[in-house]
C-alpha cells in the first residue's frame, strides 16, 4: 500500500522531538529512525584507506524530504571525520552541497579531492 507524502505521519518529528542520529560503525552508516522503527534515513560510508573515508550516499524517504534530516546525517558524518582525525572523500552530492553551505575549517581541511 503506497502512502502519499501527506499521509505519512511524522512520528517523533511531529512531536517536536529532536532528530537523533545513530552511528553503526560495523555497518558503516549513520541513520535516523523515522515514524518509530518502520522508516529510516541513512548515510553510507566506506573506508578507502587506513585513515580515509568515502561518504558515499545519503538517502531520505520521499515522504520525509525537505525537513532537514539529511543535514543532521551530514553533520554527524563530518563530525565523526573530525573527531576520528580522518580524511574524507565526498562521493555523495548532498555532502558536497552541505560542505559548500557550511564551509567550516575543521571540515574543509579534511577533504580529499
From TrEMBL:
Gene3D superfamilies: 3.40.630.30. PROSITE patterns: GNAT_YJDJ. SUPFAM superfamilies: Acyl-CoA N-acyltransferases (Nat). InterPro entries: Acyl_CoA_acyltransferase, Gcn5-rel_NAT, GNAT_YJDJ. It comes from the Eukaryota. Residues 22-112 form the N-acetyltransferase domain. Belongs to the NATD1 family. This is Protein NATD1. It comes from Ursus maritimus. The lineage of its organism: Eukaryota, Metazoa, Chordata, Craniata, Vertebrata.
Amino acid at each position: 500500500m503506497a502512502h502519499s507524502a501527506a499521509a505519512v505521519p511524522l512520528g517523533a518529528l511531529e512531536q517536536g522531538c529532536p532528530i537523533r542520529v545513530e552511528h553503526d560503525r560495523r555497518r558503516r552508516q549513520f541513520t535516523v529512525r523515522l515514524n518509530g522503527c518502520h522508516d529510516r534515513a541513512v548515510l553510507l560510508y566506506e573506508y578507502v584507506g587506513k585513515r580515509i573515508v568515502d561518504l558515499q550516499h545519503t538517502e531520505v524517504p520521499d515522504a520525509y524530504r525537505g525537513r532537514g534530516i539529511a543535514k543532521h546525517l551530514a553533520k554527524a558524518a563530518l563530525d565523526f571525520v573530525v573527531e576520528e582525525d580522518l580524511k574524507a572523500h565526498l562521493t555523495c552530492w548532498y555532502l558536497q552541497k552541505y560542505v559548500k553551505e557550511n564551509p567550516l575549517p575543521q571540515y574543509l581541511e579534511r577533504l580529499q579531492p
